[in-house]
Amino acid sequence: MKNEKAFVFGETEGLNKTTRQSDFKPNQVSRQAIQQKTGFEAADIFAATIHKNQTERRKKKTMTLTFKLSLFKHKRDTIPQIVEQSWQDLCEKFKQPQVRFQKDGLLFSPAKFEPAYRKKENVSEVSMLVLDIDHNAELQTLKEKLTPLDSAFAIYSTHSHLRRTETNLNAEPRFRVCLPLASAIPAKDFPVLWQYARWATGLPLDESAKDASRMFYTPAIAALDAPYVIEFKDGSFLDWQNLPRASFGEYDNRTATNNQTNGNRHKPPETPAFEYHEDRHLELCRRIEAQAKTTGRGTFEMKCPAHNGNGNSSLFYDPAKQSVACLKKPNQCSYFEILEAFGLPSERLPSCENKQKTQAAFEETETRIKPFPVASEKCFVIIILRV
After folding, report:
1. Max alpha carbon distance in the chain (Å)?
2. Contact at 8 Å (CB) between 302 and 292?
3. CA atoms within 13 A on the CB side of 52
4. Of 131, 173, 199, 358, which residue is the least packed, with the fewest Cβ within 10 Å?
5. How far is the C-alpha of 273 from the C-alpha of 349, rounded, in Å?
6. Which residues of the chain, if any, have pLDDT below 50?
7. Domain locations in the chain?
8. What is the pLDDT of residue 161?
């Protein structure tokens, strides 16, 4: 495609402009106006003026702030191309989805990679919070649940929105939310911000998209008549540094901190006990189905939690065969390592099927053996004497 990057995010040359804070002179309240008011009325005028000045100052900063984005040509591309765009320019680009039948194409990441190679360890900072909602994604509910974040945002539908695909078997609505940050957040703090957003909004966010190095497809539709949804909300950028510290810093430990007894932290729930291997295996399959994504073949794939891999399909589960396997090569995770990763006991358990077979064989043997005739006491004595 001709000038693919320019189509979505503009030219990459000449965009390294420094952000300038424009001079801003707050509106002055005349001394005469304040003198005419007394008590709380004067205080209200002053507070309203301060709020207005702060709002205008944030708007000025919003209009001048630019975001550094990393562009990738396709999903296997690892070398980012850096561009800078203002929030207004990005919103204009979001209004123009690219038409491509194949999902793979141009991607962006709000992360800055140092060195310039897409890898989780190379992320130094992130300039936007991007959230994916693939299930139970109703647009109105989505906008309402974003209210607690008190931030501007852009919502656009993804390539598989309302389409039956291998990853969207039920043709569900699917949306991507982009929230601009007032300042770039260090990579080490980004996971906490992502989890805070999930906790504050209660949205069913896609867990696979919480990685700081994650890249996202730019707006695209499969055909000219394919449905495309775009929604914006004006406002200030998400100031992660001024979020409620109790919520932002302690949300992940809220269960532990709320369940302290005599100064001791709440103990994690005990590992469930199983008598037979089959019962434990069914629980493992249930947990995989709850977290993994379905494929077009009716199987499930997800990132194997037993090893620190980068792919999202390293764990395979086939419901028809009830088989679970790690696809990591050359050293695959063992079945017992997978059990431990899902919080299940990993010791060897007896098989219920083998026990049933043993019981059935024993009962069959009993029916075949004829009972020995009971002899009288006199005959029994004679036999012993002869012997």
Report:
1. 136
2. yes
3. 11
4. 358
5. 10
6. 1-8, 10-31, 34-35, 37-38, 40, 46, 246, 249-250, 252-270, 372, 374-387
7. 4-16+65-253, 31-64, 272-370
8. 95
- Cα–Cα distance for residue pair 130/62, rounded to 1 Å: 18
Q: Identify whether the C-beta of residue 224 lies closer than 8 Å to the C-beta of residue 162.
A: no
Q: Helical H runs in 139-240?
A: 139-145, 190-201
Tokens 């495609």 sit at which residue?
1
- The confidence score (pLDDT) of residue 41 equals 55
Residues near 239 by beta carbon (within 8 Å), at least 6 away in sequence? 181, 182, 183
- Residue keyed to tokens 């139970």: 136
pLDDT for 177 equals 97
Q: Which residue has the tokens 């050293």?
A: 331
Kindly report, residue by residue over 269-325, the tens digit of the pLDDT. 445 677 888 888 888 888 888 788 888 788 888 888 887 666 778 888 888 888 999
DSSP string, 217-238: EPSEESSTTS---EEEE-S--B
d(CA 240, CA 125): 13
Strand, coil or helix: 368: helix
